[in-house]
Amino acid sequence: MTIVDKNLFIEHYGGIYEDSPWVAELAWDRLCEPGEVQSIGNVLAQCVDDADDETKLALIRAHPDLAGRAAIRGELTQESTGEQASAGIDKCSPEEFERFQEYNDQYHRKFGFPFVMAVRDSNRQQILATFAERLQNDADIEFARAIAEIHKIARLRLAALEQESDG
Known about the structure:
By secondary structure, the protein is mostly helical. Helix content is 66%, strand content 0%. The chain contains 9 helices and no strands. The chain has helices spanning 6-13, 22-30, 37-50, 53-61, 69-72, 78-86, 94-111, 124-134, 139-166. α1 crosses α2, α3 (37-50) packs antiparallel against α9 and α7 (94-111) runs parallel beside α8.
């Protein structure tokens, strides 16, 4: 799908990066001509990579906790709701839910931002194991890992969005 209007472009691609339509807005200004999804995805990612650390931190913090309070209150974006459900996070046992809460709290205390993982094609047990492993990292590693995971999430969302548009 080719979009030639900036506002429509931002509306269409603004949710690729969680609650961060600024990425699509910057991408529009950088695109020579809106076109292939691959090139749009590359430009979106480059906009994030070129951002300063404070802006990247705000992007990381825009992501919800896995099995967190926003999910309980039904306040996740449609994309996040679907992604968490695809991994079965919405079907946690009480023990799993408690582990998610403990890990979320530990992670926030240690790093100051939420644990971010592209959970599509994962299950609760894999996510909890990854959570435990990543809690052992230092802040610089986790900051870079969060951005890498955000890029994975964005690529998956972009592919799903384009599949919807083609279908």
